[in-house]
Give the backbone structure.
Amino acid sequence: MSRPIHLVHPVHLAAAAALALALCPAGSEAQGFGNLLRQIAPALPVPGLAPQPQQQAAPLSLPNLSETSLEQEVAIGKQLAGDLLGAVPLVKNDAVQAYVNRVGRWVAAQSERPDLAWHFGVLDTMDINAFSLPGGYVFVTRGLYQKLSNEAELAGVLGHEISHIVMKHHLKVLEKSKLVGVASSLLSSQVSSRNALGNAVAQNLLGNGAEAVARGLDKDAEYEADRMGVVLATRAGYEPYGLPEVLEKLARMKPGDDSMALLFKTHPAPQDRLGRLGDAMQNKLDRYGNGKTVEARFAASSGAINAAR
Amino acid sequence: MVGARLWVLLILALAGVRASAESGTATRELTLYEEPRAEAKAVGKLAKDAKFEQVKRERFWVLVSSAGPSGSQQGWVQSFYLTWADTPTGNAPSASRGLAEIVGLGARRNGNVTATLGVRGLDEEQLKSARFNAEELNKLESYGVAAPVAARFAAEVPLDALKLDYLAPPGSTPAGAEGGR
């Protein structure tokens, strides 16, 4: 696939890539970065762009060249969300989408980023998964939605995804690659109309955006989002065990189930997540056991999603 | 004929959901409680790798029956550290699911999702080849609601927001967590 990389001056790109290479950590993120690098490498006459970036691994203590601004974060998220929706559309049912946006917005309101323009969507695929993208974009698949039994479970799942955005987990992976920050700062000195070009930059540097959701995060980010998701749902007045109940359902599915393939690739095993969550929760949230599960309202919306085809 | 076969299937499916599936193994030693509350009296231990049968369930608490050192024992445990026997109908049925969906669960578990329901799955190739869809993005953004709308929605239940700190990662031992005894 050809990419219009000439939007960024080759010298700057080369500098960005060399810098990114120097900052590239060993291990899994190096691999993700490697993918980005391979996409632009053909245009780079940079010596030392050998195929083993791990050899040049350096500590990550060097400062970010530029913190991604909120505006940039939202632009990146928007771009990636549009790409993801190109892979799989929304369930065509306004009632379900409206319902999920209300539950999600209420849970997000309990987070440390209550003022983001949060958007929630149910994707029309039987694959079992949920996604978050920078800037407040959260998705749950129809396959996962139909596994849920009540609003507390939905709140737990959305809480997990909201937590990724609160902690900027995906954004940090992108920032660590330095390409987003470097390219943004280089461009900001060259262009005035940032919006249109900003999107183009996101497109170029992120590769095909939808793929970003398939890359996954490290395990600790997932465990952290589990711990936070439980708390966000509980803060929102729901019974705390919604997310653990969903994880148990996933753990009890057949391991070879095709509809879980991508989830298993990008997340630790559900049984492992359950154990970690149990270790963190212990009995600490038991006093909130009188939180609500909200079965009736959920059942009404589930009827709608089962009908939407 | 077809009708009779369907009834047999229905009965088998329901029986599977209700009964035989609910057994498993403890992944670590667990305290058995008299009631489904952590403050309840401890009535025994479930050894690591011990097999159990579920007697009943209250949300995330499971009343298990197991062969103990002195005969059969029962007690409540939370479901964090249990693995369940691998059965086609192992999932707890949900109140919101219709009969047809329960019957259909077997087929769905077998990975025939796409064929059964006619909705495509989602894989990496699909994601890689995806093209930006502005129309769907606009639709997504049109569903967004402002905070006050969500607050009114919460008040219908009502859901009462409360203050609560995030949980520390296990092993990080905040003050007093792992202190002796």
About this structure: Residues 14-20, 87-120, 175-181 of chain B have pLDDT under 50 and may be disordered.
